Amino acid sequence: MAGQNILVVDDEILIALDTQDALVGAGYTVVGPVAKLSDALQLAVSEPLDAALLDVSLDGVLIWPVAQALHQRGIPFVLVTGFGRGLDMPGFCCNVPVLEKPVRRAALLAQVTALFSSGRPQG
Description:
By secondary structure, this protein is of the alpha/beta class. Helix content is about 35%, strand content about 25%. Helix 2 packs parallel to helix 3.
């Protein structure tokens, strides 16, 4: 997994830093973390990425433009949310993994590993 670039998008700094720490500790390279939709979108369309972890709501702004950009590039991603399973997602996200906050490190790392072990599913 060393060298895999993972975009981390979360507006809660402590969660973002904990996620970064977990990923770096597992040998991944973290792009970000970023907390603003505009920053996340810029990275999603321009950076060499292998996967992404996306908080669904950034200060009340939904992450869908970033998710769509990743989807169009064929970059797998995981949605992280405090909204629960009742989240209304766009159609292109119907097969995207969803982790509910608070996310345990083990669950986060297992889901990221699954992204790479299943043949790079489309986000």
